[in-house]
C-alpha cells in the first residue's frame, strides 16, 4: 500500500531506504526533459542538493516561464486539486510546495513501478 510521505526530507530518505533514489532521479530527469525543461541531475546528486536545485528550478519557472511550469505539471501529472490548495502569496514558499508535489508524484510513479 502506497503511503505518500508528508514532506520532502521524509520522501527522499524513504527513496534512499528503498534503494530507489537513482530511479527517482531518472524519472525526474525524464519528465522534465519530456516537457522541454532541460534538467539533468547526475545520479551522484545528494538528496539535499536535489531538493535545493529542484526548488530553484521551480522558482525560476514561476517567475519567468509560468506556462511552461503548467505544462510540466500536466506532464508529470500533479493532481489539480493539490495545486488549488496551495497559497500563492509567497513565491518562495509556493515553489517549495510545488517542488514537493512534483517529488511526491514522481516518487509514486517509481514506487508503483518497483512494486508491481
Q: What fraction, in percent, of the residue positions are helical? A: over 70%
Describe the sheet with the most strands. Answer: none
Instruction: Quote the distance from N terminus to C terminus.
Output: 11 Å
Q: Unreliable runs, pLDDT <50, ≥5 residues?
A: none
Multimerization status:
single chain
**Tertiary shape:** globular
Q: List the helices and strands in order.
A: HHHHHH
- Overall average residue pLDDT: 95
Structural class computed from helices and strand pairing: mainly alpha
Rg (CA only)? 13 Å
Strand content: under 5%
- Beta strands, count: 0
Tally of helical segments: 6
Furnish the topology, listing elements before pairings.
Layout: H1 8-17, H2 21-34, H3 47-64, H4 66-76, H5 80-84, H6 91-115
Helix pairs in contact: 2-6, 3-4, 3-6
Quickly describe the structure:
The chain is 72% helix and 0% strand. The protein has helices spanning 8-17, 21-34, 47-64, 66-76, 80-84, 91-115. α3 packs across α4 and α3 crosses α6.
Care to describe what's here?
There is one protein chain. The termini are close together. The chain has 116 residues and is mostly helical. Helix 2 packs across helix 6 and helix 3 crosses helix 6. The relative contact order is 0.19. The mean pLDDT is 95. The protein is globular, with a radius of gyration of 13 Å. The protein contains 6 helices and no strands.
List the main descriptive attributes of the protein structure presented here:
single chain, 116 residues, mainly alpha, globular
